Amino acid sequence: MSRKNIEKAINRQISEKPLFTNSDRQRFYEGVQNQKRPWIHIVPKVVTLVITLLLISGVTYIWNTGNPFQSPAADPSITPSPPPVTEEKEKEEVLTVQDVVNQIQETLTSPFLPDEVDESFREIGEKIESQPDAPYDEYVFFKTDSYDPQESDGIPTIEPFQNGDLGLYLQIQWPSEETGFSVKIRYLSEDGEQLIEEQYAILPIGKFLKVKNPDQPVKMPDLIQQAVANSLNKSPGSLTRSDLLSLEELSIDASHREPLTIEEDAEYLKYMKALRILYLNDVKISGKLLKDLPNLEQITFIGDIISDFSSMSEGLQKVRYLNIRNSNFDGTVEDLLQLESLNIVTLDQTVIPNYEKLQFEGIDVRF
To answer: What is the CA radius of gyration of the chain?
Structure first.
């Protein structure tokens, strides 16, 4: 049987008519088109609804706000509020005593012109009118109307500060043939119980030194008190802590009497912060006490006053010039080499025969 006859036999068995006719195809396409038609009718309705809502919203906005093209700032009924004042800005406008102290120290320790300094301090304080030939200028800060600088006798004491009539006092000593440039500041401590004084001199210290209760009298052994008074050209009975703070050179000579030993509780030495040059003749002092003199640069020992130089070396670490030629020096060249800042030493070569070791280290040895 041929292939064609086989296909005919199968068709007769299933159906002699086609299973999917043209009429079936037509009904399928009509069904697909009928399913899309509802969306075509809905789209115009949705667009119309959206436009209507926008129109209603626009009318409502115009009704409530008026002219939409007019800036709200142009409305005279609206008053702009001033910008708030921040706490940081308020703090910048209020100066404290410590602020002025810092400004004074920064200004006077930098290169400056006197006229610029005067103008700067007049902006925040008041200049005291003094004699035309006075070698210094005075300024007061945070002063009340009840305080009259002209009525005060010299530098103000603690009373006007504690009464609230004065916040800060400044004295500038201008250089002359007799004196150098120096500064003195006075103000009250934070607890209000003590008066603080700070002193400054370009040479030799070059920094501010501070002392509490500067007007408090100091008591020392008579020989030392007289020596200090001679150095400062003052009366021995009038010496105060402020005077000791300004002391730069001191010579104590006990050769005409029995040797003097400076006691270990000599508190007055702590106020000699500016002392640079010390001359001791038959006066004994310990290394511990020498440490209370932080700016000591030159020292001369004369007489039988050195009992243990190695123990004294701790207070001589900043000394640049040492004279032990006429003393009973009992140390060694190694003891001298322990002095970190030593540049010049005057000694007896019979006592220290191996002084070449000092020269080898760059120390100037003199006899």
So the answer is: 49
Q: What percent of the chain has pLDDT over 90?
A: 57
Instruction: Please tell me which residue, 55 or 232, carries the higher pLDDT value.
Output: 232
Of the pLDDT bands very low, low, confident and very high (cuts 50, 70, 90), residue 78 is low
CA–CA separation, 203 and 190 (whole Å): 30
Asked whether the beta carbons of 272 and 296 are under 8 A apart, the reply is no
Domain shared by 60 and 142, yes or no: no
Is 74 within the bounds of a domain? no
Number of domains into which the chain is organized: 3
Q: What is the rounded average pLDDT for all residues in the chain?
A: 84
Residue 254's domain spans which residues? 216-367
The answer to the question of residue 82 being in a domain is no
pTM of the predicted protein model = 0.71
Q: Is 164 found in the same domain as 113?
A: yes
